[in-house]
Amino acid sequence: MNQFDKFIPFATIAAVGGLAWFLADLLGVNKKDVVIPDTGSSLPRERGKTCMYSYPKDVARKLFPQLAAQVYDAKGLFIDNESKVIDAFNRCKTKGDVYLLAQMFSARYSMNIYEYLNTFMNDRQLTIVKNRVAALPCNLK
After folding, report:
1. Is 46 helix (H, G, I), strand (E, B) or coil?
2. DSSP readout, 96-109?
3. For 42-64, how does the pLDDT look when each residue is reduced to its tens digit (9 = 90+)?
4. H/E element holding 71?
């Protein structure tokens, strides 16, 4: 009997647990949904006005989980696809949409979207995203 034989059961359990976690993540089992509020203090405010969403609720329920997944999938193991992130933010028409995207991302992946973007985007790319968000109106006219 080898001195490492006593660690084999623990290594097996860890490997099976890691595989289960990977499969659950791949199948979307551990992802949560976000409630889309109509109005209220949870929405961002600008100059005393509440920023609203530009999409109807039924469209937003389908679109924003896809956009959150698009942002999450932009980070690759070896190659990142920053254009996916910029495209996701370009699909947001108001600051309320960006807020909903950030909330959906946070609920599904348990991390802040901007902190996540800092892990793989350079300063120039982050500035493009921040300028895009800053230029968005609070509400559509």
Report:
1. strand
2. HHHHHHHHHHHHHH
3. 555 555 566 777 888 888 889 99
4. helix 57-73
Alpha-carbon distance of 9 to 65, in angstroms, equals: 38
User: Has residue 29 got a pLDDT over 70?
Assistant: no
Distance CA 30, CA 21 (A): 9
Sorted by where each begins, the domain ranges of the chain are 1-30, 32-135
**Cα dist from 23 to 20, 34, 67, 130, whole Å:** 5, 22, 21, 34
The DSSP output letter for 90 is H
Evaluate whether the domain defined by 32-135 bears CATH number 3.75.10.10. Answer: no
Give strand pairing partners of 45: 50
pLDDT recorded at residue 139? 78
Q: Per DSSP, which regions of the chain are E strands?
A: 45-46, 49-50
Query: Minimal CA–CA distance to 52: which of 35, 70, 72, 38?
Result: 38
First to last CA, the chain: 76
Give mean pLDDT, residues 78-97. 92
- Enter the tokens of residue 15: 């490997």
